[in-house]
Design a protein that fits this description.
about 280 residues, alpha+beta, Uridine Diphospho-n-acetylenolpyruvylglucosamine Reductase, domain 2, Uridine Diphospho-n-acetylenolpyruvylglucosamine Reductase, domain 3, Enolase-like, domain 1, five-stranded antiparallel beta sheet, four-stranded antiparallel beta sheet, 11 helices, binds flavin-adenine dinucleotide
Length: about 280
Amino acid sequence: MYAEFDLVVPETLAEALEAMAAGGSTLALAGGTNLIVDLRGRRVDPDRLVGLDRLAELRGIRANGGIELGARTTVTDLLRSADIAAAAPSLVESARSFAGQMVRNTATVAGNIACGSPAADLVPPLLVLDAEVTLASRTGTRTVALCDYYLGYKKDVRRPDELITAISLPRRPQRAYNRFYKLARRHGDAITVTGVAVTIAAEEGRCSLARIALAAVAPVPLRARRSEAMLEGKALTPALISEAAAQAAAESSPIDDVRASAGYRRKMVEVLTRRLLSEAWQSLH
Ligand SMILES: Cc1cc2nc3c(=O)[nH]c(=O)nc-3n(C[C@H](O)[C@H](O)[C@H](O)COP(=O)(O)OP(=O)(O)OC[C@H]3O[C@@H](n4cnc5c(N)ncnc54)[C@H](O)[C@@H]3O)c2cc1C
């Protein structure tokens, strides 16, 4: 059974932001695939839920040079979008391996970011696409780079009165490729053991931009920045890719749990980073 709470279902974003600012402990309710589980388990005990279901303006994928994802865009919406297929194959790979069909139909992009799980599957692809998060409150709107969003385990920069309203992906470089791989104990409906996403861009035979993001191997999804720096400006050889992959593993700080040991996870960061970087570089040549 649930504890008692008020449910507010606003018709407009302005009403929703008003409700988020009403004080007490207030949480947004999007697809509910995390929140309902947490309510039932009494891991959260809010005074008020603000349902986002009726806010049509928060759902949808708009190509505008870059791409803007409304906060309520679902995992299934990602899989159905030609714009996402063209610009963000890493997001498609993540969406394909996300939960099962029923959860994909309701789970939202903003809910995945806001839940703060180190294993949130949409976050590494969004990190390597340089995503920005738009946060709105009654008093205004601000934009935060996703790589600066998390402060620590389940801690982030969002104020309690703010809603995520959109996630923006900038126009990608001309010759660039992005990939994601989710290692889990099963295909579908499984929590990630190690997730790796990469973007590589090439100009005149050299790597002009490198992004590497890791999931489930640290308190938050993170960028392997020292590894990225080893690649930028260089022609990528198998030896350099191997060194960068080992560096990415060194930047992770996994723990042992029921799904895998820390050592296995660290090794998988190295293996998957090497594989994805090699495939991305080859696809550009
Ligand atoms: C069976 C099952 C399988 C799953 N499989 C996966 C998986 O493979 N990969 C994975 O990453 N996750 C998985 N999940 C977890 C979950 O589905 C995702 O994290 C999902 O993206 C959460 O989105 P939601 O819309 O359901 O969020 P909700 O449950 O509605 O909300 C989650 C949190 O985000 C907050 N929130 C939601 N929207 C906003 C907003 N716009 N602004 C501010 N805060 C907001 C809520 O207040 C809440 O704290 C699974 C869950 C279940 C039950």
